[in-house]
Amino acid sequence: MRDEGVTKYRCELEIAAPPKVDAIKDLMHCRDRLFAQGLIGVYPDGIGYGNVSLRIADSNRFYITGTQTGHKPTLTAADYCEVADYDIAQNRVRCRGKIAASSESMTHAAVYELDFGIGAVIHVHNRALWSAAMDQVPTTAGGVAYGTPEMAAEMRRLYAGTLPQERLLVMAGHEEGVIAFAPNLAEAEVVLNAALRTYCA
Ligand SMILES: [Zn+2]
């Protein structure tokens, strides 16, 4: 069921300066902490997992970790890019920077689409949390793969339920995949760490 590393979408990269460090400082710190916790990383076969993003204020654009950066303990600004535009129905993203967006950027876009108040999205992989929290928190249906229009519809279904309060979801069809979100990055990280304490104690 692991579908990491499979690019299901078209990504157009406009080569440009990477995001300014000032704009993504918190994102960079958060990502490196998650790497240290093993929540972002790389599988033995070299496929990376986990990614974080931050909405650019009052827009539908966001900064996100670049593709295949999961092996690096620390990222620089050049490892991030800006998702400037996306089309969920067409499975297409347009990004700007030195590196293409994570292959899961469409999943992040789908979360931001749920609510303009969502400012940050964390997607990690953790087998213990994934299996313990499955069906205890909002959980996407098993047949729905990440980064597809079907996943976006599935998230809307969950958001009509308890997802706005939980701010955490399990992706049943995406092995080990969990998403936390909040109005800001610090709160999203709190949501995730609280879930780890609750389900992986
Ligand atoms: Zn994933």
Protein architecture, described:
It contains 6 helices and 11 strands. By secondary structure, the protein is of the alpha+beta class. The protein has one domain: Class II aldolase/adducin N-terminal domain (L-fuculose-1-phosphate Aldolase), CATH 3.40.225. The strands form 2 sheets. Strands 1-7-6-5-4-8-11-10-9 form a 9-stranded mixed sheet, sandwiched between helices. Helix 2 packs parallel to helix 4. The relative contact order is 0.18. It binds zinc ion (ZN). Zinc ion (ZN) binds next to strand 8.
Name its key features:
single chain, 201 residues, alpha+beta, L-fuculose-1-phosphate Aldolase, 9-stranded mixed beta sheet, 11 strands, globular, binds zinc ion
Write the layout of secondary structure elements.
Elements: E1 10-15, H1 21-36, E2 41-42, E3 48-49, E4 51-55, E5 62-65, E6 80-87, E7 92-97, H2 105-114, E8 120-125, H3 127-133, E9 139-140, H4 149-159, H5 163-166, E10 168-171, E11 177-182, H6 185-199
Parallel strand pairs: 1-7, 9-10
Antiparallel strand pairs: 2-3, 4-5, 4-8, 5-6, 6-7, 8-11, 10-11
Helix pairs in contact: 2-4
By CATH, the architecture is named 3-Layer(aba) Sandwich
Number of domains: 1
Computed over alpha carbons, the radius of gyration is 15 Å
Distance between the termini: 26 Å
